[in-house]
Specification:
The complex is a heterodimer. Chain A is built from eight helices and 20 strands. By secondary structure, chain A is of the alpha+beta class. In chain A, the strands form four sheets. In chain A, strands 6-7-8-3-9-10 form a six-stranded mixed beta sheet, sandwiched between helices. Chain A has a five-stranded antiparallel beta sheet with strand order 13-12-11-14-20, with no helix packed on it. In chain A, helix 2 packs across helix 3 and helix 2 packs parallel to helix 4. The model of chain A has no long low-confidence stretch (mean pLDDT about 90). By secondary structure, chain B is mainly α. Chain B has two domains: about 50 residues, no CATH class; about 210 residues, MetI-like (MetI-like fold, Orthogonal Bundle), CATH 1.10.3720. A two-stranded antiparallel sheet of chain B has the order 1-2. Classes of the chains: A alpha+beta, B mainly alpha. At the A-B interface, strand 6 and helix 2 of A face helix 8 and helix 9 of B.
Chain lengths: ~350, ~270
Amino acid sequence: MTHVSIKSLTKTWPGAAKPSLDRLSLEIPSGELTALLGPSGCGKTTTMKMIAGLLVPTAGDVTFDGRSILKDKPEDRGVVMVFQNYLLFPYMSVADNIGFGLKMRKVPKAEIAARVADMLALVKLPDLGRRRPSELSGGQQQRVALARALIVRPKVLLLDEPLSNLDAHLRFEMRDLIRSLQRELGITTIFVTHDQEEAVVLADRVALILDGSLRQYDKADVFYKRPADEAVARFFGGHNFVPGRSEGGVFHSGLGALNLPEDARAGPGKLTFRPESVKIGAANENTVTARLIDRIYLGTQTRLRLVAGDVDIEAVLSPDLVEGLEIGADVPICLPRQSLWVLE
Amino acid sequence: MGPDPFAMRAFRILTGVLLIVWLVLPLVPLAIWSFARGWRFPDLLPQEWSLKAWSYALSDTSGVVDSLGLTIGISLGVTVLSILVGVPAGRALGLYQFRGKQAVELMILAPTIVPGIAVALGIHSVFIALGLTNTIPGVMLVHLVPTLPYMVLVMAGIFANFDPSYEAQARSLGAGPVQTFWYITLPAILPGIIVGGMFAFLVSWSQYILTLLIGGGRVVTLPLLLFNFAASGRNDITGAIGMIYILPGLLILLVTARHLSGQNGAVGGFGRL
């Protein structure tokens, strides 16, 4: 169990005008699974490599349980990184790959064999120890890479885009495997991804990094309900941003006066709400009449484009709820109070 | 569609025949000479056979055995030095981008373009000042001039196909720098070291001018000895020494012929020669 603190971690490449990672600070509680989320090139892989000791930071510090690890060599940190393309050693069998870390630690051969067998069972590949990595499927290779990392019982496990190379049906299987192994072994785990869905399904907490700096660090659902700013909301698929003014728990805008939740900020700002939270039909409060402009059928849901006054609204609903609606018709919609949020 | 198997087969037989015509046939008269007592025009074969040339060549008085030992020692030493210099240099050229990289590549290739004697004369005056002329270490150092281009280019080709992330992965799993090299890097680059090392050995083995100039006649390797006997008109002894001289090349060719197909990454670097 290791508590990881990242303090003002900064990386500026020689010759670069601005840092590729700018004063990132994060507290990662012991035993939690944390996602570093952001578009490619936002500095998340750089962060991971600095924790692993594969890159030297320009400034800042990383501590494990209060002790700085930046001066430790990569092999002495107790950090294992699993790369996106798995990097199984092609000249070794699967069993030798998994046992590699123990062999480097001079663990006796018999013990290595026993622990490798345990690991193979744990990642559900019991009979594949003698195979070569090239004979395995992508999902199997990832399990081997995971087993190879976990066998050395790292203090901190780093995963680089752990689900992105997998087919859709394998992703959930691997997600469950990573979650259960991580819970069982209680290893503090950090993974990076550019895919908000991957971050949400896998992580306890998500740190969103945009343009090299931390924008929001919260439990996954908070990013949907209470985004920190418009860029965060947009990254998580937000479409509805209505300029106006918040006063006395009411938001005044092109949509009229809408009641806000108690914790909404006051003053001028932008009203936002999830496309999924829009409801069809009038209610006791926050009802708006909007004209249906377009509808896109997406199989399990239907996406609607509406206009109320001069405000564009996007809504996502279950297809059977919007069956009778015709394009061009005026539709009463409700924006539930608890789904509203005011941004700066 | 892959290549036509019949055409491939025909091509392979053709290259095999050409290899024999060019490499083996010229050696046949040499081999016959080494067992001949006298062989005069226009006879197809010698009038008399004898093992005299061989017994002389292998005796103490001819100096062939000593020279063979010396030549093997020098060539092995040059091979080791070439690997020690060529592996890091090939890594730098194959893996990293840096300012002046093309200039460095050109300088490494230069000895294969500039005539050896010109290089050797320049080095000679430097080696006199350093006291390296007429010494075995001096000869070994000057042999590096023609061997390094091969070694470096082979290793650059190998490293261009090597992903250094494997080393990072090994470090992350707890391997130190030495362990990482031994278990991860070395297996990946070993084909290049073997091919480049054999080239270095053969190039050093066949040096004549450089050995003569820097060794000053004191360091008598097999090619020098061979040349002495050839110049003195002893065709039978020349033939015997010549047979001994081509032995390592033949052995290496037999061992590696299968791997020198051009599909091998180690040979890919030669595309740049």
